[in-house]
Design a protein that fits this description.
The protein is mainly beta. Helix content is about 5%, strand content about 40%. Strand 2 and strand 3 form a beta hairpin.
Length: about 325
Protein backbone atom coordinates (compact mmCIF):
# COMPACT_ATOMS: atom_id res chain seq x y z
CA UNK A 1 0.00 0.00 0.00
CA UNK A 2 1.38 3.44 -0.87
CA UNK A 3 0.34 7.02 -1.35
CA UNK A 4 0.84 9.71 -3.96
CA UNK A 5 1.41 13.15 -2.50
CA UNK A 6 -0.29 15.91 -4.50
CA UNK A 7 1.26 18.58 -2.32
CA UNK A 8 2.65 20.44 -5.31
CA UNK A 9 -0.94 21.51 -6.05
CA UNK A 10 -1.63 24.02 -3.30
CA UNK A 11 -4.63 25.99 -2.13
CA UNK A 12 -4.06 28.56 0.58
CA UNK A 13 -0.72 26.92 1.29
CA UNK A 14 -2.23 23.46 1.73
CA UNK A 15 -2.47 20.56 -0.71
CA UNK A 16 -5.77 20.24 -2.56
CA UNK A 17 -5.73 16.63 -1.40
CA UNK A 18 -3.09 16.29 1.29
CA UNK A 19 -2.56 12.58 0.82
CA UNK A 20 -4.07 10.76 -2.12
CA UNK A 21 -4.49 7.06 -1.29
CA UNK A 22 -3.39 4.77 -4.08
CA UNK A 23 -3.48 1.00 -4.26
CA UNK A 24 -0.18 -0.64 -5.13
CA UNK A 25 -1.40 -1.87 -8.52
CA UNK A 26 -3.43 1.23 -9.44
CA UNK A 27 -3.03 2.84 -12.85
CA UNK A 28 -3.07 6.52 -13.82
CA UNK A 29 -4.61 7.44 -17.18
CA UNK A 30 -3.99 10.96 -18.47
CA UNK A 31 -6.44 12.97 -20.58
CA UNK A 32 -5.47 15.95 -22.75
CA UNK A 33 -8.52 17.15 -24.74
CA UNK A 34 -6.38 19.26 -27.10
CA UNK A 35 -3.35 17.11 -27.76
CA UNK A 36 -4.37 13.59 -26.80
CA UNK A 37 -5.63 10.72 -28.96
CA UNK A 38 -7.83 7.83 -27.91
CA UNK A 39 -5.48 5.39 -29.64
CA UNK A 40 -2.75 6.32 -27.17
CA UNK A 41 -1.79 4.32 -24.12
CA UNK A 42 -2.93 6.98 -21.67
CA UNK A 43 0.39 7.44 -19.89
CA UNK A 44 1.70 10.93 -19.19
CA UNK A 45 3.63 11.12 -22.48
CA UNK A 46 0.83 9.61 -24.57
CA UNK A 47 -2.44 11.02 -23.18
CA UNK A 48 -5.93 10.09 -24.28
CA UNK A 49 -8.33 12.65 -25.76
CA UNK A 50 -11.48 11.92 -23.73
CA UNK A 51 -12.42 11.08 -20.16
CA UNK A 52 -14.64 8.27 -21.42
CA UNK A 53 -11.67 6.56 -23.12
CA UNK A 54 -9.61 6.80 -19.94
CA UNK A 55 -12.49 5.59 -17.78
CA UNK A 56 -12.94 2.54 -20.03
CA UNK A 57 -9.37 1.48 -19.20
CA UNK A 58 -9.99 1.66 -15.44
CA UNK A 59 -10.69 -1.46 -13.39
CA UNK A 60 -13.31 -1.20 -10.66
CA UNK A 61 -11.84 -1.41 -7.16
CA UNK A 62 -8.19 -1.14 -8.22
CA UNK A 63 -7.79 2.51 -7.23
CA UNK A 64 -7.24 3.75 -10.77
CA UNK A 65 -7.07 7.49 -11.49
CA UNK A 66 -8.20 9.54 -14.49
CA UNK A 67 -6.08 12.71 -14.56
CA UNK A 68 -7.52 15.60 -16.62
CA UNK A 69 -5.04 18.18 -17.84
CA UNK A 70 -6.05 21.80 -17.30
CA UNK A 71 -6.18 24.17 -20.24
CA UNK A 72 -4.71 27.64 -20.85
CA UNK A 73 -5.07 30.14 -18.04
CA UNK A 74 -5.93 33.20 -20.14
CA UNK A 75 -9.27 34.79 -19.33
CA UNK A 76 -12.31 32.98 -20.63
CA UNK A 77 -10.42 30.23 -22.45
CA UNK A 78 -12.60 27.11 -22.67
CA UNK A 79 -11.35 25.49 -25.88
CA UNK A 80 -9.41 22.91 -23.89
CA UNK A 81 -12.53 21.64 -22.10
CA UNK A 82 -13.22 17.91 -21.92
CA UNK A 83 -16.54 17.60 -23.77
CA UNK A 84 -18.97 14.77 -23.09
CA UNK A 85 -21.32 13.55 -25.82
CA UNK A 86 -23.50 11.54 -23.42
CA UNK A 87 -23.94 11.01 -19.71
CA UNK A 88 -20.76 9.65 -18.14
CA UNK A 89 -21.92 6.98 -15.68
CA UNK A 90 -19.17 6.57 -13.10
CA UNK A 91 -20.04 3.09 -11.81
CA UNK A 92 -16.57 1.70 -11.01
CA UNK A 93 -15.76 1.66 -7.30
CA UNK A 94 -12.61 3.24 -5.88
CA UNK A 95 -11.93 4.94 -9.22
CA UNK A 96 -10.93 8.60 -9.17
CA UNK A 97 -11.07 11.75 -11.31
CA UNK A 98 -8.50 14.47 -10.64
CA UNK A 99 -7.97 17.79 -12.45
CA UNK A 100 -4.35 18.79 -13.09
CA UNK A 101 -4.39 22.58 -13.09
CA UNK A 102 -4.41 25.66 -10.91
CA UNK A 103 -6.53 24.85 -7.82
CA UNK A 104 -8.77 27.91 -7.99
CA UNK A 105 -12.20 27.30 -6.51
CA UNK A 106 -14.26 28.83 -9.33
CA UNK A 107 -13.95 28.02 -13.04
CA UNK A 108 -10.95 25.72 -12.92
CA UNK A 109 -9.45 25.18 -16.38
CA UNK A 110 -9.45 21.45 -15.82
CA UNK A 111 -13.02 21.65 -17.06
CA UNK A 112 -15.80 19.28 -18.14
CA UNK A 113 -18.85 20.26 -20.16
CA UNK A 114 -21.09 19.06 -23.00
CA UNK A 115 -20.65 19.45 -26.72
CA UNK A 116 -19.77 22.87 -28.12
CA UNK A 117 -23.32 23.27 -29.48
CA UNK A 118 -24.71 22.78 -25.97
CA UNK A 119 -25.34 19.57 -24.07
CA UNK A 120 -28.44 17.62 -25.08
CA UNK A 121 -28.52 15.15 -22.17
CA UNK A 122 -28.66 15.12 -18.40
CA UNK A 123 -26.90 14.63 -16.06
CA UNK A 124 -23.39 15.24 -17.29
CA UNK A 125 -21.94 12.81 -14.73
CA UNK A 126 -23.90 10.18 -12.79
CA UNK A 127 -21.94 8.64 -9.93
CA UNK A 128 -23.24 5.18 -9.03
CA UNK A 129 -19.92 3.75 -7.87
CA UNK A 130 -18.70 4.07 -4.28
CA UNK A 131 -15.46 5.10 -2.62
CA UNK A 132 -14.40 7.47 -5.41
CA UNK A 133 -12.50 10.76 -5.19
CA UNK A 134 -13.30 13.74 -7.43
CA UNK A 135 -11.06 16.77 -7.10
CA UNK A 136 -9.84 20.02 -8.61
CA UNK A 137 -12.01 20.48 -11.71
CA UNK A 138 -15.04 22.48 -12.89
CA UNK A 139 -18.10 20.97 -14.52
CA UNK A 140 -20.58 23.13 -16.47
CA UNK A 141 -24.00 22.04 -17.77
CA UNK A 142 -25.94 24.13 -20.30
CA UNK A 143 -28.78 21.77 -21.29
CA UNK A 144 -32.27 23.29 -21.04
CA UNK A 145 -34.50 20.32 -20.06
CA UNK A 146 -34.40 18.98 -16.47
CA UNK A 147 -30.67 19.73 -16.31
CA UNK A 148 -28.60 18.17 -13.54
CA UNK A 149 -24.86 18.72 -13.53
CA UNK A 150 -23.79 15.87 -11.21
CA UNK A 151 -26.08 13.17 -9.82
CA UNK A 152 -24.73 11.05 -6.97
CA UNK A 153 -26.30 7.70 -6.08
CA UNK A 154 -23.20 5.88 -4.81
CA UNK A 155 -21.92 5.88 -1.25
CA UNK A 156 -18.82 7.18 0.52
CA UNK A 157 -17.70 9.34 -2.38
CA UNK A 158 -15.48 12.38 -1.77
CA UNK A 159 -15.52 15.68 -3.66
CA UNK A 160 -12.87 18.34 -3.04
CA UNK A 161 -12.41 21.67 -4.82
CA UNK A 162 -14.98 20.81 -7.49
CA UNK A 163 -16.96 23.67 -9.08
CA UNK A 164 -20.40 22.23 -9.92
CA UNK A 165 -22.14 24.67 -12.28
CA UNK A 166 -25.66 23.64 -13.23
CA UNK A 167 -28.46 25.47 -15.08
CA UNK A 168 -25.96 27.20 -17.35
CA UNK A 169 -28.57 28.36 -19.87
CA UNK A 170 -31.80 30.35 -19.40
CA UNK A 171 -34.08 27.40 -20.26
CA UNK A 172 -32.43 25.36 -17.53
CA UNK A 173 -32.88 28.16 -15.03
CA UNK A 174 -36.59 28.14 -15.92
CA UNK A 175 -36.97 24.38 -15.31
CA UNK A 176 -38.42 23.42 -11.92
CA UNK A 177 -36.70 20.00 -12.06
CA UNK A 178 -33.23 21.50 -12.51
CA UNK A 179 -30.39 21.56 -10.00
CA UNK A 180 -26.61 21.74 -9.95
CA UNK A 181 -26.14 18.76 -7.62
CA UNK A 182 -28.64 15.93 -7.09
CA UNK A 183 -28.14 13.40 -4.30
CA UNK A 184 -30.39 10.38 -4.86
CA UNK A 185 -30.17 7.84 -2.07
CA UNK A 186 -26.48 8.61 -1.58
CA UNK A 187 -24.94 7.81 1.79
CA UNK A 188 -21.91 9.08 3.69
CA UNK A 189 -20.52 11.37 0.98
CA UNK A 190 -18.35 14.40 1.74
CA UNK A 191 -18.03 17.67 -0.18
CA UNK A 192 -15.08 19.79 0.94
CA UNK A 193 -14.06 23.17 -0.44
CA UNK A 194 -16.51 22.91 -3.35
CA UNK A 195 -18.42 25.72 -5.09
CA UNK A 196 -21.93 24.57 -6.02
CA UNK A 197 -24.20 26.63 -8.26
CA UNK A 198 -23.89 29.46 -10.74
CA UNK A 199 -24.51 33.22 -10.49
CA UNK A 200 -24.35 34.12 -14.19
CA UNK A 201 -27.71 32.63 -15.27
CA UNK A 202 -31.01 33.64 -13.67
CA UNK A 203 -33.00 30.99 -11.81
CA UNK A 204 -36.59 31.92 -12.61
CA UNK A 205 -38.57 29.16 -10.88
CA UNK A 206 -38.65 27.05 -7.72
CA UNK A 207 -35.60 24.90 -8.47
CA UNK A 208 -32.50 24.54 -6.28
CA UNK A 209 -28.73 24.41 -6.45
CA UNK A 210 -28.69 21.23 -4.32
CA UNK A 211 -31.55 18.72 -4.21
CA UNK A 212 -31.91 15.63 -2.04
CA UNK A 213 -34.16 12.67 -2.87
CA UNK A 214 -34.31 8.95 -2.12
CA UNK A 215 -33.44 9.07 1.58
CA UNK A 216 -29.89 10.40 1.24
CA UNK A 217 -28.13 10.25 4.57
CA UNK A 218 -25.02 11.38 6.44
CA UNK A 219 -23.94 13.86 3.78
CA UNK A 220 -21.38 16.44 4.91
CA UNK A 221 -20.51 19.78 3.27
CA UNK A 222 -17.43 21.52 4.68
CA UNK A 223 -16.02 24.92 3.67
CA UNK A 224 -18.26 25.07 0.61
CA UNK A 225 -19.85 28.01 -1.20
CA UNK A 226 -23.38 27.55 -2.53
CA UNK A 227 -24.05 30.37 -5.00
CA UNK A 228 -27.00 31.49 -7.09
CA UNK A 229 -28.72 34.29 -8.99
CA UNK A 230 -32.42 34.10 -8.20
CA UNK A 231 -35.00 35.77 -10.42
CA UNK A 232 -37.82 34.15 -8.47
CA UNK A 233 -38.39 34.40 -4.73
CA UNK A 234 -39.19 30.68 -4.67
CA UNK A 235 -35.74 29.60 -5.84
CA UNK A 236 -33.73 27.65 -3.24
CA UNK A 237 -30.19 26.87 -2.28
CA UNK A 238 -31.31 23.47 -0.95
CA UNK A 239 -34.47 21.45 -1.71
CA UNK A 240 -35.60 18.63 0.59
CA UNK A 241 -39.32 18.91 -0.10
CA UNK A 242 -40.35 15.24 0.03
CA UNK A 243 -41.34 13.22 3.10
CA UNK A 244 -38.54 10.67 2.54
CA UNK A 245 -35.85 12.78 0.84
CA UNK A 246 -33.23 12.46 3.60
CA UNK A 247 -32.47 10.23 6.56
CA UNK A 248 -30.42 10.77 9.72
CA UNK A 249 -28.58 14.05 9.01
CA UNK A 250 -27.20 16.49 6.46
CA UNK A 251 -24.43 18.78 7.77
CA UNK A 252 -23.27 22.13 6.39
CA UNK A 253 -20.15 23.23 8.28
CA UNK A 254 -18.41 26.57 7.62
CA UNK A 255 -20.39 27.07 4.42
CA UNK A 256 -21.43 30.32 2.72
CA UNK A 257 -24.71 30.68 0.82
CA UNK A 258 -24.75 33.63 -1.60
CA UNK A 259 -27.63 34.87 -3.73
CA UNK A 260 -26.32 37.87 -5.68
CA UNK A 261 -28.83 40.44 -4.36
CA UNK A 262 -26.26 43.23 -4.64
CA UNK A 263 -26.11 42.44 -8.37
CA UNK A 264 -29.89 42.73 -8.92
CA UNK A 265 -30.88 39.16 -7.98
CA UNK A 266 -34.29 38.69 -6.32
CA UNK A 267 -34.32 38.01 -2.58
CA UNK A 268 -35.41 34.43 -1.96
CA UNK A 269 -38.16 33.64 0.54
CA UNK A 270 -36.04 30.94 2.16
CA UNK A 271 -32.65 29.33 1.71
CA UNK A 272 -34.00 25.80 1.96
CA UNK A 273 -37.31 24.00 1.72
CA UNK A 274 -37.23 21.13 4.24
CA UNK A 275 -40.30 18.88 4.53
CA UNK A 276 -41.68 18.62 8.05
CA UNK A 277 -41.30 14.82 8.03
CA UNK A 278 -38.38 14.46 5.62
CA UNK A 279 -36.82 11.66 7.68
CA UNK A 280 -33.78 13.49 8.97
CA UNK A 281 -32.37 16.81 10.10
CA UNK A 282 -30.27 19.60 8.62
CA UNK A 283 -27.46 20.96 10.79
CA UNK A 284 -25.88 24.34 9.98
CA UNK A 285 -22.70 25.05 11.89
CA UNK A 286 -20.93 28.38 11.51
CA UNK A 287 -22.66 29.16 8.20
CA UNK A 288 -23.42 32.53 6.58
CA UNK A 289 -26.28 33.23 4.19
CA UNK A 290 -27.03 36.33 2.11
CA UNK A 291 -29.96 36.89 -0.22
CA UNK A 292 -32.87 35.08 1.44
CA UNK A 293 -35.32 36.25 4.08
CA UNK A 294 -35.19 33.04 6.14
CA UNK A 295 -33.18 29.89 6.37
CA UNK A 296 -36.36 27.81 6.41
CA UNK A 297 -39.62 29.76 6.33
CA UNK A 298 -41.84 26.91 7.57
CA UNK A 299 -39.52 26.40 10.57
CA UNK A 300 -40.55 22.75 11.05
CA UNK A 301 -38.02 22.17 13.79
CA UNK A 302 -35.73 19.95 11.70
CA UNK A 303 -33.23 22.69 10.75
CA UNK A 304 -30.70 23.51 13.47
CA UNK A 305 -28.35 26.50 13.32
CA UNK A 306 -25.34 26.76 15.64
CA UNK A 307 -27.16 26.56 18.98
CA UNK A 308 -30.29 28.34 17.72
CA UNK A 309 -33.52 27.35 16.03
CA UNK A 310 -34.23 28.58 12.49
CA UNK A 311 -36.50 31.35 13.73
CA UNK A 312 -38.08 33.34 10.92
CA UNK A 313 -36.18 36.50 10.11
CA UNK A 314 -33.60 36.22 12.89
CA UNK A 315 -31.26 33.32 13.56
CA UNK A 316 -28.36 32.74 11.27
CA UNK A 317 -29.04 35.52 8.80
CA UNK A 318 -26.28 37.71 7.44
CA UNK A 319 -26.38 41.44 8.00
CA UNK A 320 -28.43 43.49 5.52
CA UNK A 321 -30.01 40.55 3.72
CA UNK A 322 -32.57 42.88 2.19
CA UNK A 323 -32.75 46.63 1.73
Amino acid sequence: MGSTNLGTILQNGSPVISTFPQMMNARWYYVDPENGANGNSGDADNPLATIAAAYDKCVSGRGDVVALRGGPTSGGTTGHSARLSETLTWSKHNTHLIGLGAPTKVGQRARITGESTGATFTPLIKVTGSGCIFANFAIFHDYGVDPVCIEVEGDRNYFENVNIQGMGVAAGGDDAAACSLLLDGAEECTFRGCVIGLDTIERSTTNAEIEFVGGSKRIIFEDCEIISFADNAGHLFVKIDGSADIDRYIIFRNCTFINAVESTATTMTQAMDVHNSCGGMVLLHNCVMVGATDWAAADNGNVFISNAAATAGTSGLAVAVTR
